[in-house]
Automatic annotation (TrEMBL):
<dbReference type="GO" id="GO:0005730">
    <property type="term" value="C:nucleolus"/>
</dbReference>
<comment type="similarity">
    <text>Belongs to the NOP16 family.</text>
</comment>
<dbReference type="GO" id="GO:0042273">
    <property type="term" value="P:ribosomal large subunit biogenesis"/>
</dbReference>
<keyword id="KW-0539">Nucleus</keyword>
<protein>
    <recommendedName>
        <fullName>Nucleolar protein 16</fullName>
    </recommendedName>
</protein>
<dbReference type="Pfam" id="PF09420">
    <property type="entry name" value="Nop16"/>
</dbReference>
<dbReference type="InterPro" id="IPR019002">
    <property type="entry name" value="Ribosome_biogenesis_Nop16"/>
</dbReference>
């Protein structure tokens, strides 16, 4: 079966098309993505990024904001103590709100999955601290080694210390009844 006409020919580059203008206009339309809500609310879309950040008292380029001293580079230069280009901060509340948010204690968002908690509790309930026996258990679906099981139990102990103590305390009366 013959090939379709025109499929094998080389595509010609269009020299008359201004790709710079197309790219620039697409970039201009896209607004910057801002993660911090404080900055998002104070942002003025009619100003440049540098102007917006300067008004909020934030640095656009960290290398310019905190320059490396000349002493560290090997050259010693004396300065008269004046800071060139001191900028006026018109929106200081943005920095204040960000500092306040950063000073709050961090929430512990680390949690374990319900399946892992159930797995660890089952293993402790049936085998106590015998990790080799746990590794041979039929519920060990992922074929964890004794060290891996021990590590999972230690993670559970660290994440939920009170719950672990209560669980161990609830196991002791059951063992006394059996004996």
């Amino acid at each position: 079966m013959p090939k379709a006409k025109g499929k094998s020919r080389r595509h010609k580059y269009s020299y008359n098309l201004n790709r710079k203008r197309l790219y620039r206009s697409a970039r201009r339309r896209a607004a910057p993505r801002i993660a911090c809500s404080h900055i998002r609310h104070a942002w003025d879309p009619h100003k440049s990024v540098a102007q917006n950040l300067a008004e909020m008292g934030l640095a656009e380029d960290p290398n310019k904001a905190v320059p490396i001293p000349k002493k560290l580079l090997g050259m010693e230069v004396e300065s008269d103590g004046q800071q060139p280009g001191k900028k006026i901060v018109r929106k200081p509340y943005v920095v204040n709100e960000m500092e306040l948010e950063a000073s709050l204690p961090e929430k512990k968002s680390n949690t374990l999955s319900r399946d892992l908690i159930d797995y660890v509790r089952y293993m402790i309930q049936n085998h106590g601290e015998n990790y080799k026996e746990m590794a041979r258990d039929e519920k060990n679906y992922y074929q964890d080694t004794p060290k891996q099981i021990k590590r999972k139990i230690n993670v559970y102990k660290n994440f939920y210390p009170e719950e672990y103590k209560d669980f161990i305390a609830s196991l002791k009366p059951e063992k006394m009844e059996v004996q």
